[in-house]
Amino acid sequence: MTVEEAITGRQSIRAFLSKPVPRALIEQILTIASRAPSGTNAQPWRVWVLEGGAKEQLSRDLYDRFMRDEPAHYDYFYYLHEWREPYLARRRKTGWGLYGLLGIAKGDRAASKAQHARNFLFFDAPVGLFFTIDRDLGLGAWLDYGMFLQSIMIVARAFGLDTCPQAAFCQYHQVIEKRLGIPPDQILVCGMALGYADPEAKVNQFRTDREPVSSFTTFIDRLSD
Fold first, then answer.
1. Which domains occur in the chain, in start order?
2. Which of 23, 92, 142, 182 has its CA at a distance of 20 to 30 angstroms from the CA of residue 84?
């Protein structure tokens, strides 16, 4: 698989096979991804890997909390406080496209909630990853972290695995931190499902589009006076 194929073939998978991922392969993916660049080689990432009974126990706990509408608590806010264009249109297109593919009608809150709740089950992936960062690190370290996360997803593709990065877990960061023993000087960045995609699952047919280069790039060949 070429780098181009790994990047363009990556997508957020929402249905996984139960096929286990060898511990050695998880370690190999993380080892390669750790070559991601970071300012002054700070390497600000910390990874927590859940498998087997530990993953199932935490997943069920979080799933149940979400289904009974337990209040969310955030350490940081991932999205806009008030959606505006062009982000609002992109968000709606993604949501309506995914739910439409699954036959979930607009306004069907129960079905939408049930689908969203599958985040907390890692979409049945055999491996769940959590990522944390020191609270006192600045914005640059968070930018470095993004490159590390992207590296994991691309390397996973090279080994025939797929992923789904998940900010949904952040609303229950206090529960996750307590259950995993994450120290208070760390912030939960996100979670990620890792495993082998279910090729028969309809939900995995969903693909988001991307804006053309011309819409977000400005080429400058002359500076203003």
1. 13-202 (3.40.109.10)
2. 142
